[in-house]
Amino acid sequence: MKAAARALMALAVCSIGENRRDWSVAMRTEFEAAAADGNALAFAFGCLVASWRELLTSEEGHYTLTSYALVLGLMLPMAAVQIGCALLGFPYLYPGQGGLRGALLMGGEHEALMRNVYQGAVPPLALLLLLLGVGHLCIAWATLERDWTRAARIATLAMAGSTTLIIFMGGLFLDCSRALLQATVLAIELATIWMIARWHARLSPAIIEHPG
Amino acid sequence: MRALLDALSMRRLDWRHGYDLMKETGLSSGTLYPLLMRMTDQGLVEAEWREPAQPGRPPRHAYRLTAAGFALAVERAADGEVVPSGASFV
């Protein structure tokens, strides 16, 4: 029971925004008094309700929810698509022709001519996609940590990787439509991160005014 | 908010801890802390980290009414609400 209360309390403390950090520490300190009185679970649950109320009613809470929505709704699915694409034979990269089988022209007229070239291209292509997927994960992490310098650095590398992928697909497989689509999603992501970083910069003076 | 105002105005100059206020007012932590946050933002309550009575324990956040908060408590009492018995007007 006490472990559940502690877990709820930890969640409450994590959920509260930077400008209310002092309050989360205050709640955690009072939690010990409540626990000594046998009211740990009710107290911790109340604190969780209080911190979620703050999330829903304060601008910093809206900012936090937006960041998580971007990460969970766009960045992680994109990372999953790209990592899955790299590991499962490019199903989302080479449209309409059965992924890797299609890319390698299996059963096609030019298979004998092109097969070796395409087979040579597959490992770097898979590596590139894998790196792009991992890059998405790193950008997501930096966004949640509000480390905009790191996010910008990884975003630059991801854009370079995405451009390389488009050139690669266009030059070798004569079809870069899916790579373009992925690059477009990446561009949307980066534009949204830029807006979120500006929002965070606007909120920061308020955080400095009320430290904790 | 009235229960909290009443409780805080009872001993206006004393610093009070969150858990003690919960027990005194019957409010849950989910109601008390948002109220304290709002009242602090509005300048009705002041908050301070106080050293604990028992050594070795971490400092605790403590609260008391500001002059504006106490004026509001008195105004509400004058409007027909219960005047906190033992309220200090100092």
Structure commentary:
The complex is a heterodimer of chains A (212) and B (90). Mean pLDDT of chain A is 83; it is low at 208-212. Helices cover 83% and strands 0% of the residues of chain A. Chain A has two domains: 2-57; 60-209. With 212 residues, chain A is mainly alpha-helical. Chain B starts with a helix and ends in a 12-residue tail after the last helix. Chain B has one domain (2-78): Winged helix-like DNA-binding domain superfamily/Winged helix DNA-binding domain (Arc Repressor Mutant, subunit A), CATH 1.10.10. Chains A and B meet through α2 and α3 of A and α2 and α3 of B.
Q: Secondary-structure map with pairings?
A:
The complex is a heterodimer of chains A (212) and B (90).
Chain A: H1 2-15, H2 21-36, H3 40-57, H4 59-87, H5 99-103, H6 111-145, H7 148-173, H8 177-209
Helix pairs in contact in A: 1-2, 1-3, 2-3, 3-4, 4-6, 4-8, 6-7, 7-8
Chain B: H1 2-10, E1 16-17, H2 18-25, H3 29-41, E2 45-50, E3 60-65, H4 67-78
Antiparallel strand pairs in B: 1-3, 2-3
Helix pairs in contact in B: 1-4
